């Protein structure tokens, strides 16, 4: 009597079953449409709006999420509309704008600090170079031990100017002074050396001293309708 051998089924699934399992796992790991990607701690975004409190509305690149991000203290460059920025934080609900990566308009940059701003160098020098320099402040105080200024032209417009010092030396080719009223007080000696001196007064010219000396090597001329001496 012949008996056919009955083959027991093996425990390992066919190759097709393995492929289906892998596809199912990949599908489960794939984020749902519209779902936010896992947070990695930082992201790139685009500035959509600048708020009055200094924070920005940033739209994440790729996902389109929008966050309100305060500017980190280390980010001194003021973000602008359309700038590409780097935001970072422990979670999506607590993000800071830490750097401006690319400016939408690189022709204008603004460094902004909330409080006092000090720029110092311990051992080197600080240099500023630009085609144009504009300074605006309500009050300024400059303490410089030794200053050397070189320039082609200086124009000063002010209501009141006061200079207090011990010594003033001026070397000029030409000096022109136009005033409505002039007053000068010299306590000790005033000396003038000139090739020619021309003094003219519309009304009165007065010279008074304890001792007055007028000398000339060639000529002394006094011409008037009336001459009073003594």
Structural write-up:
- The protein has 230 residues and is mainly beta.
- It has a domain at 46-113.
- The chain has one helix at residues 15-29; strands at residues 42-50, 56-60, 66-69, 84-91, 94-102.
- A 5-stranded antiparallel beta sheet has the order 3-2-1-4-5, with no helix packed on it.
- The radius of gyration is 42 Å and the shape is rod-shaped.
Can you give keywords for this protein?
5-stranded antiparallel beta sheet; 230 residues; 5 strands; mainly beta
Q: What would a concise description of this structure say?
A:
Helix content is 7%, strand content 15%.
Major sheet, described briefly?
5 strands, antiparallel
Mean pLDDT: 86
Instruction: Please compute the radius of gyration using only Cα atoms.
Output: 42 Å
Low-confidence segments, given as residue ranges, are: none
